[in-house]
Amino acid sequence: MGVIEETFSGHEASRASLDACVKCTICETMCPVAKATPLYTGPKYNGPQAERFRDGASVDNSLEWCNFCGICTLHCPQGVKIAELNEQAAAKMKHQNGVPLRDRLIPLTVLEGKVLSPIAPLANWGLKQKPIRFAVEKIIKVHREAPMPEAHTETLSKWIRKHKPATKPTKGPVIFFQGCAGGYFETETSVKSIEVLEHLGYEVLVPKQGCCGLAQQSNGLFKQSTKTLLDICDKIIARGKDIPVVSSSGSCIGMIKHEAHEIMGVDDPRLHDVSVRSFDFCEFLMEEYRNGEIDLSDLKPLDLTVPYHQPCQVKSQGMGFPAVQLMELIPGVKVLESNEPCCGIAGTYGLKAERYDVSQKIGAKVFEHMREYNEGVGVCDTETCRWQITKSSGVKIVHPVWLLHQALGLSDNLLD
């Protein structure tokens, strides 16, 4: 299941919802892309209306401007799978017209991490050089101003090999799902996540792992994405049944919990096994806290107002605002949510040369929110969104675990 050449179950389920559309246009008014450019004719037209005429083929090239943020589906009062229909149709359109080289290269995140990490200082220097970035834009069509991740010589796997927990576990095990960014480019966030879980008493298992396949999916490579995803599921299952899977990569865990099944139609017992026990990091801790499984009464005060943006990939999971709830358990912390639908990056959308300006328009109010309200730091749950907001606002943007890590007395570099 999930292979684009087939009539996959994800499409069948999404198509079954289209007749529920009453043309209320709520999706149109909420769409961040339609507000940013007239080149996109909107989710209602590209979704339920156009789907009636597709018969397996795409009929509207304006669909390529959709960033698949999922805001339309989230706000539809009738339950129409608008974003899912759009992404499925876009994948078909891409296969009809040919997948560009760029869209095949961008998803190779694990390979990029393996290549860049050994030469991290040189790689980071090179990616800041304007002539190099200009050449990359001309050849590969990744915009010269698009945010780039920072490579690290010490990958998470290297850190794991020499890491010894500070205390013995007093609770059962959890499996930490790092995602490719968490393994190579956001290693400090992964380290802080593991250390917090261990400090709270959990035994943290970190299986060998790579990409979840989300970048492949968002670029229309459903067949490759399905293979990548199920490989991750195999590795997680091999570490034990019924063990919670926790991730501080909000978009990657969303792929396992929601997108793989809803968009690609992956109907595999391995995915079901892993998805039903998968949790976003903040979601997991808040559930454990509410159930009385962890004690957070000794958190040190942080007299800090933090602007926060919940990414669209996290919104689509329908779990509310666990990050806000968790951060506000820290005495002195006040969280100001952006109330904006999307920062514009949408995974790899904002990297692409022809979409960069639209991406910046979509995220403009998020950037403004971070600049106006930060007291040295802002917060966001997913990696690419943090890179986008940091680059475009000039504000240091971190995962919520950074605040918790410092409030537990495990670090003091939040405002460095």
UniProtKB/TrEMBL annotation:
InterPro entries: 4Fe4S_Fe-S-bd, 4Fe4S_Fe_S_CS, Cys_rich_dom, G3P_DH_GlpC_su. It holds the Pfam family CCG. GO terms for molecular function: 4 iron, 4 sulfur cluster binding; metal ion binding; oxidoreductase activity. It comes from the Bacteria. SUPFAM superfamilies: alpha-helical ferredoxin (SSF46548). One of its GO terms (biological process) is anaerobic respiration. Residues 12-42, 55-86 form the 4Fe-4S ferredoxin-type domain. Keywords: 4Fe-4S, Iron, Iron-sulfur, Metal-binding, Repeat. Gene3D superfamilies: 3.30.70.3270. One of its GO terms (cellular component) is membrane. PROSITE patterns: 4FE4S_FER_1, 4FE4S_FER_2. The keyword Cell inner membrane does not apply. This is Glycerol-3-phosphate dehydrogenase. The gene is glpC.
